[in-house]
């Protein structure tokens, strides 16, 4: 996400856009020649730019506009067709401008400007914008074969010392492409999915076995118990032993409680 002010009349393009991009105008006007035709965007207007298409912009002096983009490894055909059927340009809801303002504030404070945070804000802008237009995500769409193969491998072999390159080879695509596909379809990364599987299994073993923290850590793919304890505390708010003690104490108190009188 970013923004710019054009002090003078300016031309940008032709350019080839690589991501899914939403362009919106706060002040002034811009003529856009893109996949959906030639359009005049004025204050409050927005237009969607598809990856792989060429665009030409002619900005009027004093134009202030912003944009938001998400990395798209690929777009399903039905999604592209749905976008093409919409009338462009459209109005950019005023409440979404607050999300843009938040993102700009995050970028100004570089110490907080994490890529993950900005990506989350960008996704929120797109999600809200499409919802306003009557388009909602399709949660039940099958995963692409490469993502499904990688996901199954991670969930079956999370305790092994598997590497991203090995997972990508199993899926039949490059590690970089697999990362983009995971972000698109699972809102995660292969590495984050792997560690999430390890943490979830560690919690299950804490809850259902008497294994030591050290043994659980090694069984779930951690190199040492300190890393395991740190991630468990991040997830649950307490170290593993304290979590187990609290859980077992609550279970014991529940069993010893007098029966409820109806």
TrEMBL record:
PANTHER family reported in the protein's UniProt record: ARAC-FAMILY TRANSCRIPTIONAL REGULATOR (PTHR43280), HTH-TYPE TRANSCRIPTIONAL REGULATOR EXSA (PTHR43280:SF2)
Protein name: AraC family transcriptional regulator
GO molecular function: DNA-binding transcription factor activity; sequence-specific DNA binding
PROSITE patterns assigned: HTH_ARAC_FAMILY_1, HTH_ARAC_FAMILY_2
One Pfam family of this chain: HTH_18
Source organism, top-level taxon: Bacteria
Keyword terms: DNA-binding, Transcription, Transcription regulation
Ranges for domain HTH araC/xylS-type: 148-246
């Amino acid at each position: 996400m970013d923004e710019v002010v054009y002090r003078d009349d300016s031309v940008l393009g032709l350019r080839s856009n690589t991501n899914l991009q939403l362009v919106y105008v706060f002040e002034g006007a811009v003529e856009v020649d893109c996949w959906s035709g030639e359009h005049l965007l004025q204050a409050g207007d927005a237009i969607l730019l598809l990856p792989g298409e060429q665009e030409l912009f002619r900005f009027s002096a004093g134009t202030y506009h912003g944009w938001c983009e998400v990395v798209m490894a690929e777009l399903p055909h039905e999604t592209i067709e749905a976008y093409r059927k919409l009338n462009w340009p459209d109005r950019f809801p005023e409440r979404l401008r607050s999300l843009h303002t938040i993102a700009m504030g995050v970028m100004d404070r570089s110490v907080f400007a994490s890529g993950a945070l900005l990506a989350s804000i960008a996704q929120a802008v797109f999600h809200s914008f499409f919802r306003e237009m009557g388009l909602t995500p399709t949660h039940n769409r099958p995963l692409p074969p490469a993502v499904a193969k990688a996901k199954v491998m991670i969930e079956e072999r999370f305790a092994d010392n598997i590497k991203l390159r090995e997972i990508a080879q199993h899926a039949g695509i490059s590690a970089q492409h697999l990362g983009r596909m995971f972000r698109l379809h699972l809102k995660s990364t292969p590495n984050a999915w792997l560690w999430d599987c390890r943490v979830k299994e560690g919690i299950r073993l804490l809850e259902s076995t008497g294994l030591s923290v050290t043994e659980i850590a090694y069984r779930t793919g951690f190199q040492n118990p300190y890393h395991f304890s740190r991630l468990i505390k991040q997830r649950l708010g307490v170290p593993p032993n304290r979590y187990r003690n609290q859980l077992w104490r609550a279970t014991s108190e529940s069993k010893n409680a007098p029966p409820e009188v109806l």
